[in-house]
Amino acid sequence: MKSLFGAHDALELVENGYEDLGANPTDAHRVTFKELKRKDCKALQVEEEEVEEEEEICVAK
Fold it and tell me: Which domain holds residue 41?
C-alpha cells in the first residue's frame, strides 16, 4: 500500500495525519489545511478502490 499511496502523493499524510485548524487560522493555514484534507480524501478513495478490486477478485473465484 505504501507504493500506492506514494504514487498518489498521499503517503506522508497517511503515515503522519494532519492537525485540525485551530482558533483564528491564517490564510496560509487554511490553504494548507484544505490541501491536506484533499489528499486525505484522495487516499481514502484509493484505499476504497483497492478494497473493491479485491472484493471483485474474491467474488470471481
Answer: 2-60
